[in-house]
Amino acid sequence: MAANKSGGRGTAANIIKVILLILAVIVVIAAVVVAVYFGTNGFGGSYPTFALKVNGEIVTKSSALELPSGSTLNISGFEDYTLKVEAAEPEEDFKIKVGDTGLHYSELAGEDITSGFTFTKAEDGSIVMTYGPLEEVLSEGLGEDVKISDSDVTGAFKLIVTCGDSVLELTHGIFDVGLGFDLELDPEHIVMGG
Fold first, then answer.
1. d(C-alpha 66, C-alpha 178), whole Å
2. Residue of 109, 108, 110, 128 lying closest to 119 (CA atoms)
3. What pTM, to 2 d.p., does this model score?
4. How many domains does the chain have?
5. Is there a single domain that holds both residue 30 and residue 83?
6. pLDDT of the chain along its 194 residues, tens only?
7. What are the b/e assignments for 150-180, b being 16+ CB within 10 Å?
8. DSSP alpha helices (H): ranges in 81-142?
9. Are residues 22 and 63 in the same domain?
């Protein structure tokens, strides 16, 4: 009878070990599922499935940031992506003339003006975004002559980067409205030239 008791303890210990092993496997599987959920947008995760760097800074969510002409965009994780630029609501509205029609800039919000910007793929795979003065961007983007009477305005735009189902919207402004001179900032002084 003593032999049966020790054999029963061994069997109970084996059953506990099997149960613990099964629980450990379930925990590992659950951890993998959670990682996939949060690491992809495939089934509801909130993180994009691509990485975007703007001028060397990682961008993880839609936001407002400076995108001066010559800005560099690095997109990784997808070979296929789209870049689109739309007019956005400005901080302060201003009047413009599109062809013969007088408008407020805010009336252009949502208009596709991508053709007012140039996107050039560099040898390293990055994309360089360039653009001219605000009137030029709007004229090219809208396909009509645009005039701005006030020289102290900032046009707001949304750069929309789409990769698969993931979308980042980066709001930025153009600060050069074609005043006829260049403004160069220097840590010690401002240099103006024409």
1. 18
2. 128
3. 0.62
4. 2
5. no
6. 445 555 567 788 889 999 999 999 999 999 988 777 666 555 554 444 677 888 888 887 788 888 888 999 888 776 778 889 998 888 888 888 999 999 988 898 999 999 999 999 988 888 999 988 888 989 999 999 999 877 666 678 889 988 877 888 888 876 443 434 444 545 555 544 44
7. eeebbbbbbbbbbbeebebbbbbbbebbeee
8. 134-142
9. no
